[in-house]
């Protein structure tokens, strides 16, 4: 009985960790489109979102390598949360005070550098304390989704969908996360085995993971799928607004409803389905989501928004569990960081800029042709699905080594 209570307490701590990290991120990402537009910075939107992609090329791998080799991941997360709070508040202040677009973008980039590694490091901390990741991770990760939803609801409830106060609120949540890390037990890195090279300090040695054929397909598919996905948060709120929806941050949280449900269903899916079919299901739902958005109707758009969470869980959360199960423990922080680079870095950088240009190409006389815009992205997702389905083999196709050879 005492052991069960201890497990519940431990899982509760991990759930709160995910809750705060995701809530703070959502309070910035979701309202950002309308905040920038309301302050005359609508042209900055694709570049502001692209800052997270630029940051993901550098900071997750560096801090992932630090968490694997030099410092407790809990301590690394604490200082990153403090830095994220300060830089988010500065970025929001610059928008509200009407500072030049270049300054706003620079501060947004600075925030992104601080915040980009927090997701992969939080995931590493959680996985390090789980005994059965396939069964336990989904319900705990659902707390992150609930945190994102609560952040969106709070922003809409106080009418801050287009206000810098959304960023100030997010900064307070980052500080709450930093304080909460003092309650978490330290997860110390393994003892040093010798001098660390510059390449290893930068985390570039994680690229050895790409030598494994299935790892390579998962990483590449993550990057490719993230390109059309990048259009969702910058442009779905704009589409909702044009169709007459107010409090768009709250409406966008519909996607998190299916995300939570899918998190709790993951354990059953892992028990019955091959990983390949779970991955493929996420990609298929992603294509259906954009096809529904292309209907350019209120019901179709809301249906597409709602399916976003199901697609995200089936593909991206499964990918995180895949890495935890099939990569050696000494490499897991760097593996999750490399996933962040492929997702938030390569995929999002191409996606934010590329989909912004695509929206411009689909806009005539000031009005976007939403059917063409979302329909084109649905075709891209279909191509990613075809690549993955042909290239990924998995253990059902042929046996692969689960660990990375470092010699």
Protein model, in words:
There is one protein chain. By secondary structure, the protein is an all-alpha fold. The protein has 18 helices and 2 strands. The protein has a two-stranded antiparallel sheet with strand order 1-2. Strand 1 and strand 2 form a beta hairpin. Helix 8 runs antiparallel to helix 16. The radius of gyration is 20 Å and the shape is globular. About 55% of the residues are buried. The N terminus and C terminus are likely disordered.
| Spatial gap, N to C terminus | 45 Å
The biggest sheet amounts to:
2 strands, antiparallel
Radius of gyration based on Cα positions? 20 Å
Classification by helices and strands? mainly alpha
So what's the overall shape?
A: globular
- Compute the average pLDDT: 83
Spatial sequence of strands, sheet with the most strands: 1-2
Write down the secondary-structure element order. HHHHHHHHHHHHHHHHHEEH
Number of contiguous helices? 18
Helix content: over 70%
DSSP strand tally: 2
Q: Classify the beta-strand content into a percent band.
A: under 5%
Low-confidence stretches: 1-5, 396-407
Offer a quick outline of the entry:
75% of the residues lie in helices and 1% in strands. The chain is mainly alpha-helical. The chain is globular.
